[in-house]
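Re: that chain you flagged

S.,

Sorry for the slow reply, it's been a week of failed gels. I finally had a moment to sit down with the sequence you sent. For the record, here it is as I used it:
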Amino acid sequence: MMAKQDYYKLLDLPRDATEADIKKAYRRLAMKFHPDRNPDDPQSEHNFKEAKEAYEVLTDAQKRALYDQYGHAGLQASGASRGGFGAGDAFGDIFGEMFGDIFSGGQRGRSQVFRGADLRYELELNLEQAVFGTKTEIQIPSLAECQTCAGTGAAKGSAPKTCDTCGGQGQVRMQQSIFTIQQPCPRCKGRGKIVSNPCDTCLGQGRVRQEKSLSVAVPAGVDTGDRIRLSGEGEAGRNGGPAGDLYVEVQVREHAIFEREGSNLSCEVPISFTTAALGGVVGVPTLSGDVVLKIPPETQSGRVFRLREKGVVPVRGGATGDLFCRVVIETPVSLDADQKELLRHFEATLQQGGHKPREQSFFEGVKKFFTGAGD
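Prediction finished late last night. Pasting the structure tokens below so you have them in one place:
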């Protein structure tokens, strides 16, 4: 007689494996070695029986304790390894549980209940509302439980009758090869009840479409793409099932001054030619009020100044962002004759050289390019 293999090694499990781990391992081996899938293969049948025996012992607390302490000898001495367990019992238990839960939503032995659908609502905010938070009212179209029939779908004075197809279970069983699959009853659609006299308000559905008003508290720091979950504010469930959730998705509108990237803000600050050349100060707007930005002499257009902690406090925590100010030199417009003449005279004084290094460098580069002096 062959020595019995260690149950844990047979299932490829550690000795502290959980019951869920044991079921998963047995399910894998049962699928591989089941006789219906391996006809006329004595070795597969033997492997299947060994896996079944290991599963039976290791999922029984008393048997497992005996086995862990005394091994196979302990089980034989107690008689725990004999009788009461047919070849298909473990397989049917495991796969009946797996497929039953898939098709019945975990509600075995009773009519099906259905969770209500989740809803999505797009909430548009301006930048200030997103940065500082706000509270707003929204109108949501949804399905709610019918108040006339209290969700039963039956008219007043009547009640739903037990479905004679599924016997009120809401499920029917179908045999497919080695599997027994549960699925919703085709007549009552999983409800377990038949409404012969439907409610005039909901037409037998048990739910009515209506619009409800909800208050949404928007936390400070949200950004486009963030979602706020309102639990239980989605569509009503069926057959007493729980309501779904409402997900409010934030969409932040473009701002006239600021652009946002994460927790940082940026903006363009126009300055005059005189301020750029000689230096000075300009007022810069922030979301918390104006601040003074010092412009050093000889500032070039496009230079970026950083104002620390003038950005956004992130909704999920972290350091406050910064405000990046990009200065742009503004060209004067609508000049009169005297102003134009002054500018021509000023431009002439700049021809002495050394006053426009970027322009000089550019044209020297162009000259070298066309003459080949740089080769």
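What I noticed first: The longest helix spans residues 42-58.

Talk soon,
D.
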